[in-house]
Design brief:
This protein is of the alpha/beta class. Helices cover about 25% and strands about 20% of the residues. It is built from six helices and seven strands. Helix 4 packs across helix 6.
């Protein structure tokens, strides 16, 4: 088995290294992918999320993309802006935390039945640490679903993301899962609706038993 080379600190450097809480202080009450991609993500969640489950929406905002006709026991949103979280009607709990400053999640072990990171993985500067925390707070067999498109705030995206292709992004997220430990094999899903709309992919892995 080939030994993985360590990630270098420069991989997670950003053009704007200013405090993230200042960058995200003003609410952005807008969607970050188009209607087709949003519908595709919702359909993916409908297939993979357990009805009645406890959902953790990390790096959450004004929309969790959850299917309207599926009920969940709870939806915990952890994000950077209180007004954006307040505008999200699916959340039953709202937490403010900068994962780049504090990767440890304020949750007990095995709390959740699924974890979502929607179109924001490119901003994490300590992704392996965060993924290890996701593994800790998920119940055995629970899915983690990380989706991404080709859009971002480039000054806040990490260098390794900006310097790689969409196919390499899927590999990179799979590496986050593998290096964090606690997950089964990762699977890449092409959710792109086609046409002239936004492309969309998801990488998903389940918490190991």
């Amino acid at each position: 088995m080939t030994e993985r080379k360590p990630f270098l600190p420069r991989f997670f450097a950003r053009e704007d290294e200013g405090e993230d809480d200042l960058f995200y202080r003003d609410p952005r009450l807008v969607v970050h992918i188009d209607d087709g991609a949003r519908a595709a993500l919702t359909a993916c969640y409908a297939r993979l999320l357990p009805p009645g489950g406890r959902i953790l929406d990390l790096m959450s905002s004004m929309e969790s993309h959850l299917p309207a006709d599926v009920g969940f026991a709870s939806v915990t949103g952890l994000g950077m802006n209180a007004l954006e979280l307040a505008a999200n009607p699916r959340l039953t709990e709202r937490l403010i935390q900068d994962l780049n400053h504090a990767p440890k999640l304020p949750c007990t072990d095995g709390t959740f039945d699924a974890c979502l990171i929607a179109v924001s993985i490119q901003y994490l500067t300590h992704p392996v640490e965060v993924f290890a925390e996701i593994a800790r707070v998920l119940a055995p067999g629970a899915p983690a679903i990380v989706s991404f498109s080709n859009r971002c705030f480039p000054t806040k995206a990490v260098a390794v993301w900006l310097g790689t292709t969409d196919a390499q992004h899927a590999w990179l997220v799979g590496e986050y899962f593998a290096r964090a430990g606690g997950f089964g094999a990762a699977e890449t899903l092409d959710l792109s609706p086609g046409g002239w709309g936004d492309p969309l992919w998801a990488v998903t892995a389940r918490r190991a038993a």
